[in-house]
Amino acid sequence: MVRAEDELNITNDQNLDEYVSIDQNTPTEGDVELEHLVLELGGESNQENETDDEIEEIQEEENKVKCYDEALIYVKELKNFAKDDYAFEQIKNLDCHFRKCRDDAKQKKLKQATILTFIQTVLNKFSVLLLFCGAFELALRGHDEKENSENRGIFKELVNFSAELDNELKVHIQSAKLFKGTSKTTQNELLECMLDVYHEEVKKEIANSPFVAVIADETTDVACEFQYLCKGQPVERFWRFYVPDGHDAKSIAACVLNVVNPLIDQNPNKLIAQSYDGASVMSGELNGVQKIIKETYPLANYVHCYAHQLNLIMTSACSVNKQARIFFHNLSGLCSFFSTSPQRTKILDEIVNRRLPRSSQTRWNFQSRGVHTVYENRKDLIEVMDNIESTSRDSSSINQASGYKLKLQDTNFVFWLSIFHKIMPHVEIVFNQLQKVCTDSVKVKNDLENFEAAIQTIREQMDSIIDEIERVQRETDEPARKKRQVEEGSKKREALEICDAVLSQIRTRFNFSGHLVASNLFVSEKFSVYKHQFPEAHLNDPCTQFSFLDKNRLKTELQVLYQREELSTTSGAVPLSILLNEEGLNCTFQETLKLLSILITIPMSTSEAERSFSMLKRIKTFLRNTMKEERLSALGMLSAEKHFVSGIENFNNKLEVVANQDSPNRGSSSSAVAGTLKYTQILKPVDVGRRSSKKGPVAVVVVAVATRPQPNSVQATVDASSVNLDAVSK
After folding, report:
1. Which among 200, 404, 478, 729 is most buried, taking Cβ atoms within 10 Å?
2. What pairs with residue 223 in β-bridges?
3. Which of 415-429, 494-508, 677-691 has the largest mean confidence?
C-alpha cells in the first residue's frame, strides 16, 4: 500500500509538524475534503448551515451504512495518518472489514432466499391440496384438530399423507415452529387468492366477449353468475355468493349492480339480459330488480329461467287438483321412508333389488324418477311393506309400513301414479334438453313445441289410458283390498284438468316475444321459404330492441345467407355462429354474427346456475359446517368451475401475483399468505449484496410475518435492505 506521506508530498518533519499542529477548529481545505469523505461513509458534518434537503440526503446516506459503525472511527483516525504505521494497518483493516461484511451479507442473503423459496414451494403444495379438496367437495377442517385427535380434518390429514411421500414437506411439518401453513387463516387466504385468480380469468373472457348476461338466484344468500360467448360457445361462469343488506328489490339490485358495474361499466350496451329465479319473480320479491337494473343498462332484457318455468308448470298443474297434490306428498314420503333406516333398506334390496330415489332438493327434478320406480315395482313394494310389518320390532316402522301399503293399493294413488308415469317421461326429456349448456333460443322453441304436442296427445288418448289403468288394477289387486271406485267420468275430468293446466302454463310462460322472435330467422328448415319470402316481421323486433344493429345490412346478409346451400344445412344459432367464424366470414356477416351472439348469450337454460345455487347447501353441509359465509364463494367456485380452474395456465404463479395485491374481500398484505408471498416477491429483484438494517437474518422476519403479519414493519424492512454492499466497498 502507498504511504500517505508520499500521496501528500510531505518530505520533512517541519512540514509534518505544521500539518499536525493545524487548529482543528479551522475549516481548512483538508478538513473540507475530510468532511466530504465522512459524509460519503455515513459520518456527521461540522457545518451547521446545511439545508433541510441536504440534511435528509445525509440521513439517507447514513442509514445505508449505519450497520458499519466502526467505519467512522477508522476515517477519523486518518488525521493522524502521518504519525505512525498504525494508521495504515487500520486502513487495511477497514478494507478487510468491508469485504468480510459483504461476504457475510451474501451468505445471509443466499440463506434467506433459500428459506423464502422453500416457504413458497410449501404454499404451492398446499394450494394443490386445496384444489383437490374443493374439486371433490371434501371437508377441509375438523372440529378437533389437536395432535391427539383421531380425525383432524381432511386437509391436515391430506398434508400428513403428502408429507410421507415428500421428504421436503415432511421436514417442514416436523421442524417449522413459526409457520407451518396448515392454519385456518392460511387456508382461508389461499382460498380467497384462488377466487381472485379465477375472477381475473373470467374478467378476461368477459372483456373479449361481445355480450354478457347476468343470472342471479336467491338461496340463503344471493348468488351471481354470468353467461357470455367464449370462442363462439355460450358459457356460464359462477361468480360468488353475496349477502345483501336486505331482501327487497332495491337491496338485491344494488348487490347485482356492484358486481356488474366494474366489469362492463365502460360499455353499458354489453349487458343484454338478466335472469332471476322464476318462483321469486312470480312472488313479487324480485319484481322490481329487473326494472332497477334496466335503468342503468337499458338493453338488459329480463328473461325467465326456463328450467324454473317448467317446475312452475308442474307445480301449477298439481295445485289445481287436491288428489294430485296428495299423491306427490305421499310419493315423497314413501321415498324418504327407506332412506332413513338401514334395516328397511336391506329388506328393499332383498326383495326389489332396487333403491327408491330420495327426494331431490334441486327444483328441476320433480319426482320423475320416483314416479317411474314406484310404478315399475309397486307389487314388490307391497311385499316389502308386508315383510316390515311381520319382522320389524319398531312400532314407528310398522305403523308407516301399514300406511304406505294401503297407499300402494289405493285406487286413487294407483290412478295418479299411472297418469304421471305417462306425463313424466316427456317432462324429463324437456328438462334434460333445457339443461344443456349449448341450448339456444331455436332449440328451446322446438323442444317446447314437441313437449306441448306430447301432452296434447296424452290428453286426446285419455279414454284409452284410463281403460288400461283399470284393466291392470283388476288383474293385480285383490277384490277385498279395493276401495270404492271413483266414477269413471270424475277420474277422466281430473286427468284432463291436469293436462289442460300444463298446456295453459306452457302457452302462457313460453310465449316468445320481442327480440326472441329473431330465433326464427335461423331455423334452417325454413331457409328455402325465406329465399323467396323474406321474414320481415321477425327482423323488426330485434332491430327495434337493439338499436346498434344495422337493419339494412343485416337484411342483406340474411338474404345472402338464405341463398347459400352450404350454410342452409347448419341448424341452430351456435353451430351457425361457429361455422361463420371458422370459415372466416365474420367480416362478411358482421351484423348476422351480432344477432347470433345476442341470441346465444341470452340464457335459455340455467343448468349451471341451478347446480351452483343448490350447491350452497351442499357446501355448508359437506365442506365447512363452521365456516363463515365469505369462504363459501371460493369453495363454490372450486366445485362448480373445477374444469375451468384446471385449465388455467401457471395457476400457482398467478396465485402468488394476486396474493401481493390488495383485495376488498380478504386481508391482503396483513394476512399470513399475502405477507409471505409479498415479501418473497419484493425481495426477488434485490441484488445478492443487500442486507437488512435490522440485526439478525431477514428470513426470521419473514417467518415471523407469516405467523404474525405486520405490514408496515415488513415494508420498512424491505426498503431498508436495499443497501448494495458492492457499491459501498468500492
Report:
1. 404
2. 217, 241
3. 415-429
Q: Which residues contact 487 (CB under 8 A, 6 or more apart)?
A: none
Given a cut of 70, whether residue 27 has pLDDT beyond it is: no
As given in the structure block, the three cell numbers for residue 669 are 398484505
Q: What is the pLDDT of residues 103-154, one digit of tens each?
A: 777 777 776 666 666 666 777 777 777 777 777 767 676 655 666 666 677 7
What 8-state DSSP symbol labels residue 589? T
**Sign of CA pseudo-dihedral 168, 169, 171, 175:** positive
In single-letter form, the type of residue at position 570 comes to T
Q: Which run of H or E residues covers position 476?
A: helix 462-476
Taking alpha carbons only, the member of 235, 243, 8, 197 closest to residue 654 is 197
- Long-range CB contacts (< 8 A, 24+ apart) of 692-698? 692/717, 692/720, 692/721, 693/63, 693/66, 693/67, 693/717, 693/720, 693/721, 693/723, 694/720, 697/108, 697/111, 697/112, 698/108, 698/109, 698/112
- Scored b (16 or more CB within 10 A) or e, 183-220 reads ebebbbbbbbbbbbbbbebbeebbeebbbbbbbbbbee
Measured in residues, the chain has a length of 730
**Please, are residues 201 and 569 in contact by the beta-carbon 8 Å criterion?**
no
Band (pLDDT 50/70/90 cuts) for residue 665 is low
Beta-carbon contacts of 719 under 8 Å, excluding residues fewer than 6 positions away, are none
Q: Are residues 339 and 457 in the same domain?
A: yes
- Bridge-based pairing of strands 301-304 and 212-218 is unpaired
* CA pair distance 8, 45, nearest whole angstrom: 23
Q: How far apart, in Å, are the Cα atoms of 225 and each of 158, 208, 466, 609?
A: 32, 17, 45, 7
Check whether residue 327 and residue 452 sit in a common domain. Answer: yes
C-alpha cell at 161: 399423507
Please tell me whether residues 47 and 126 are part of one structural domain: no
75: its cell numbers: 476515517
Residue 414's nearest CA partner among 353, 461, 361, 475 is: 475
Distances from the Cα of 65 to the Cα of 55, 113, 238, angstroms = 16, 22, 53
Classify residue 133 as exposed, middle or buried by CB count within 10 Å of its CB (0-12, 13-18, 19+): buried
CA 315/CA 312 separation, integer angstroms: 5
Containing structural domain, residue 537:
514-601
- In order, the DSSP letters of 63-101 are HHTTT-THHHHHHHGGGGTTT-THHHHHHHHHHHHHHHH
